[in-house]
User: Fold these one by one.
Assistant:
Number 1:
Amino acid sequence: MTVYFIGAGPGAADLITVRGARILAASPVCLYAGSLVPVELLAECPEGARLIDTANLDIDRITAELVRAHADGDDVARLHSGDPSVFSAVNEQMKRLDEAGVPYEVVPGVPAFAAAAAALKRELTVPTVGQTVILTRIAQRATAMPAGEDLATLGRSGALIVLHLAARYVDRVVDELLPHYGADCPTAVVAMASRPDEIILRGTLDSIAEQVKAAGVIRTAVIMVGRTLGAEQFRDSHLYSPERDRHVC
């Protein structure tokens, strides 16, 4: 049978895609990260489904559960928070399934940064202000960053930076980006995006750290730094411009 890596979305149960929900409702086995995936989603599983919380399982035990389900002839819904394409640890699972000869598919989901932008009511790309978004993280206890992907290097671009897994180290983020963005650069932090306990913090690069500490935000958050967050004066996009010749392909 098939293992489906499903992006469960940023938190709100109804932000899973229609495709993801359909597969979840038809899969007799579901693996999910209990600390990140909303429990309301599990109600979509079929009656009698085998539910496995992976929060305290290592990669070998997770793989064993996937291979076991395949051997039993069961489809598997493997729920991941956000979208599987970024910071999801899906690669190592797919690699092991390839080695075991187990088929799989990937179902995209709503990423955390998109939910955060929606909460802020901001488009992250603004004509003449900023057209580039960098998704990254910082190295701390997790895997080291590759050469050239440190914040000091990425910050030289001046592009909007979206940091995952970094709220605990907000002071370090500020220190490394200040030389490139300036103290007055618009900055926002969104924790638990789309959930009932969502927290939205808005400020500047020199004020955001104190807000994050005061709010007690240390995880499940994204930090955004860039001029597009505060853009008020900008040129309309060409897409809907009345000056655009709509007869030209």
Number 2:
Amino acid sequence: MALTGRAALVAALGSLPVGILAPSWTGILAVEVPLSLAILCDYALAAPVRTLQFTRSGDTSVRLGETAAVQLTVTNPSRRRLRAHLRDAWPPSSWTAEAEQASSRHQFAVPAGERRRLTTLLRPSRRGDRQADRVTVRSFGPLGLASRQGYHRVPWTVRALPPFTSRKHLPSRLARLRELDGRTSVLTRGEGTEFDSLRAYVPGDDTRSIDWRATARQSAVAVRTWRPERDRHILVVLDTGRTSAGRVGDVPRLDAAMDATLLLTALATRAGDRVNLIAYDRRVRAQVQGRTAGGDVLATLVNTLATLEPELVETDAHGLSTAALANAPRRSLIVLLTSLDAAPIEEGLLPVLPQLTQRHTVLVAAVADPHVEAMARARGTVDAIYEAAAGTQAQAQRRRTADQLRRHGVTVVDATPNDLAPALADAYLALKAAGRL
């Protein structure tokens, strides 16, 4: 039993005349006994909580920053009218602190034998699965003096997916892709590496494109046309070691790398390429393998990346290289999303790079911190001078690390979180245009 504020108010109002007119035990009992009986009757008339039945429906996934609606259906099988307050509890990251009070608490009434549907709005602030906690119900009597309280477990899971904010860059990159692979122009000799078709010779065609065997079988001279090669293999390797846990502004490095991965995947699958992914630190944390080009690749990646979190361990570069080679058996573009910190690169990645670059094209993408550049430009005070020196030193170190990678034949993309995804897409298109894929 739980007493309400109304019961306390009635007791307080009843004690005033007793204290003024008849300050005695008789006066107190004259007020408290009827009030106690009213409370007991009110409690007895409140609808039971344990017999209530609950079912859930609604959204099972939502992009980070958007709102999911989860419906909770309450069935009252008893013969008494249910007047209740309900709290639908979820983890704190399921909504903002300001929205939790309004979203999780409901006040409603259900006649005997009927049901009501309540809607809880979730707006997750972090990626991953959000599991519904207990549903706490407080059932009030008709007088509102006392209530029954209990809880039920009604399981439900809502997965918060990566937001894919770089989607806005996809149309412009697709337009450039169409220009590269000749979808917006007539195919001619030299525009690709994969044979497409034969056509009649016209003056000005390169004589090296003449197909003499086909010409011998027909009366006109035939020339070959070409198109860019399709079905290339792209392996995206996400470094989930300790450096990926760092935040650049409000964005974790791993989240920025995921956003870049999604844009690259959307672009590459439109180009007809095969995209695989592994997330690695000291072991494989997530893997998407064997997916052919198609619309389900991006959805699979989004669902896989949703629950991925960084690990506070140093990445095993040798194990990462071995895992990459095992997942890229034929010539591939290996996209490694990691940091450009000198120690992990020089001591871990550089010694194993020859194993990767010998058979594959390697592209390293890293998240740059714009605060470092701001530090390097700081002027005016003694503290600013020290910050400028530290920022300049950090920038010079990143440039040296990037130059070391380039000397090994690696393409390097170093950009801020907002620019990393379009910069990586541009690097992919540049490699494609240069015929290095």
